[in-house]
Amino acid sequence: MEIKELSNKIFKNAIEKGLCRDIPETVAWLHSEVSEIYEAFKKKIKAGEPGWIGQEIADVVILALSLSEQLRIDIGKEIADKMEINLSRDQY
Length: 92
Ligand SMILES: [Mg+2]
Prior knowledge:
mainly alpha; 4 helices; 0% strand; binds magnesium ion
């Protein structure tokens, strides 16, 4: 599945489930999801258990894709463009 198709599917689901919020609230939610990655790592939660780090990373990516769709950003292009910048640098 292409990233644009995936972003559309994620955002459509957010709208249908009533999960779509305003931009500042979505950014705050994204921040809390990032913290859940840290918690999963700290608690050493294993694969398959609720709160596993893989699922928490997925939550962050899903929410970031939903946000980019909400803002009508072509995230595939932005990632490709940013990777070109990053590849030319010694650090992010
Ligand atoms: Mg989460």
